TrEMBL record:
Coiled coil: none annotated. One of its GO terms (molecular function) is metal ion binding. Keywords: Dioxygenase, Iron, Metal-binding, Oxidoreductase. It comes from Arabidopsis suecica (Swedish thale-cress). Belongs to the iron/ascorbate-dependent oxidoreductase family. This is Oxoglutarate/iron-dependent dioxygenase. PANTHER family: 2-OXOGLUTARATE (2OG) AND FE(II)-DEPENDENT OXYGENASE SUPERFAMILY PROTEIN-RELATED. The keyword Metal-binding applies. Residues 181-281 form the Fe2OG dioxygenase domain.
Length: 326
């Protein structure tokens, strides 16, 4: 599709686009603020409108009072940091093999991406391979399984509101991702302090390949989004969850929802850690504009293709340009 070739920043056009982006970051009182949505508001219609508006105009927002216990989020961060504090030999016990899952040090030359990360599936149960889940610290599995239950509930709630924003039934987007077989993957990003932070990135410029990402950061800032020709810092809000619209929601909504370019920067003195959960369709699903959203007056702007083919093509394009996945 002509539109997809010209406007889909997640496809083969992304590497060349990334090289053109200015490196300057806007800070100060005039900086636009990434939307924050309070999910405890008594008027759910207002919540729905706020979530839809943020997804259309920004492709990223933060949610507060979201129902995930603060203590559980703290436990998630504790066991994650405890894993990265282990000796290298213990971390290598869950090292990556042929698949994307597992632990890896990712200090790349050229673009200078600098991180360690732990990557593994958390849903559905039939796809989980516990050999990539650390056995140390001992509480790691229990905490992550409890977190998964809450994260899945929150994700489906947000997808329901986004479905309503498209004039569809609340379950439309969740069903289109495969329902209970939609894949949830957590990645724990560990960004050590970098004395030359201006020469390195924790994660290069990208859009998320999947449908939607829900991320919890520690208190050290570093996530930036590209909007209106400038990089904007994400404000840290204690216990907030960052919601990022990915390529597949953009494609399924026929461009109504915006996939946002973002990157992770490093701090000169402080450790950054983040816990994104990536939600994606079943790999064998055909993904494209939902039929209910297209017609003679609103033709499809994106090609409908099997998700695994989209995934492999996008990763191959990024790899050729020496860009990391996230």
């Amino acid at each position: 599709m002509e539109f997809e070739r010209d406007h889909n920043t997640s496809s083969s056009s992304l590497p060349s686009l990334c090289k053109q982006l200015a490196s300057s970051t806007l800070r100060g009182s005039l900086e636009p603020h990434i939307p924050v949505v309070d999910l405890s508001a008594s008027d759910e219609d207002l919540v729905v409108r706020a979530v839809v508006k943020a997804s259309e105009e920004w492709g990223i927002f933060q949610v507060v009072n979201h129902g995930i216990p603060t203590e559980l989020m703290q436990q998630l961060q504790v066991v994650g940091k405890q894993f990265f504090d282990l000796p290298e030999a213990e971390k290598e016990a869950v090292a990556k093999e042929e698949d994307f899952e597992g632990y890896k040090r990712n200090y790349l030359e050229g673009i200078k991406a600098w991180d360690e990360h732990l990557f593994h599936r958390i849903w559905p149960p039939s796809c989980i391979n516990y050999k990539y889940w650390p056995k140390n610290p001992p509480q790691y599995r229990e905490v992550n399984e409890e977190y998964t239950r809450h994260m899945k509930k929150l994700t489906e709630k947000i997808l329901g509101w986004l479905s309503e924003g498209l004039g569809l039934s609340p379950v439309a987007l969740t069903k289109s991702l495969g329902g209970e077989m939609a894949e949830y993957v957590i990645r724990v990003n560990f960004y050590p302090p970098s004395p030359k932070s201006e020469l390195a990135l924790g994660a290069a410029v990208h859009t998320d390949i999947g449908a939607i990402t829900l991320l919890v950061p520690n208190e050290v800032p570093g996530l930036q989004v590209f909007k209106d020709e400038q990089w904007l810092d994400l404000e840290y809000i204690n216990s907030a969850v960052v919601v990022i619209i990915g390529d597949q929601l953009m494609r399924m909504s026929n461009g109504r929802y915006n996939n946002v370019l973002h990157r992770a920067t490093l701090d000169k003195e402080n450790l950054r850690i983040s816990w994104p959960v990536f939600v994606a369709p079943k790999h064998d699903l055909f993904v494209g504009p939902l039929p209910e959203l297209t017609g003679d007056e609103n033709p499809p702007k994106f090609e409908t293709i099997v998700y695994k083919d989209y995934l492999h093509q996008t990763i191959r394009n990024w790899t050729l340009d020496k860009l990391p996945l996230y």
